[in-house]
Amino acid sequence: xxxxxxxxxxxxxxxxxxxxxxxxxxxxxxxxxxxxxxxxxxxxxxxxxxxxxxxxxxxxxxxxxxxxxxxxxxxxxxxxxxxxxxxxxxxxxxxxxxxxxxxxxxxxxxxxxxxxxxxxxxxxxxxxxxxxxxxxxxxxxxxxxxxxxxxxxxxxxxxxxxxxxxxxxxxxxxxxxxxxxxxxxxxxxxxxxxxxxxxxxxxxxx
Length: 206
Hints:
Layout: H1 10-45, E1 46-48, H2 49-55, E2 68-76, E3 86-87, E4 97-106, E5 122-128, E6 134-141, E7 145-151, E8 157-163, E9 166-174, E10 181-189, E11 194-203
Antiparallel strand pairs: 1-11, 2-4, 2-9, 3-8, 5-6, 5-10, 7-8, 10-11
């Protein structure tokens, strides 16, 4: 049997090394780009509440006049939501739809919270301008929450938390703030701090 020997030159070795490095660099850039996109998506959908509060002012702090626009937002948790109450939902956010149903001018500004305290039954609303810049935030009570008490077999009152799938809430934006979008976040306790989980957004016009 005849054996064919191939001569590998130094130039061939250099070319092979360069090709290998190029391939691995391309793979690394692709993975890096994917990781960056995933990190960005995670940052937008779930954020640290303390970081938001330290970098974005309260809407009340942006007031330059003693007037505001009150936006009434309708919130349906499921597409077929028609009212009623349901037991506590799952820990993961359910599909939500937000709709602007009314707006009006009022001679008042949202109250300034000197020591903001988060809990599981509040929402955090962040106002954005047309370019996506964050203008300010505001807390509102979660309108879904219904606390009910009923007597047990021994006459002792037993509490239960229920959630309404179709509700409305109001956000006050000071006059002069060029708001275009309201983002709605619910709070989530991580075991060490509160995170803000994006539920959805709604376009508004002052």
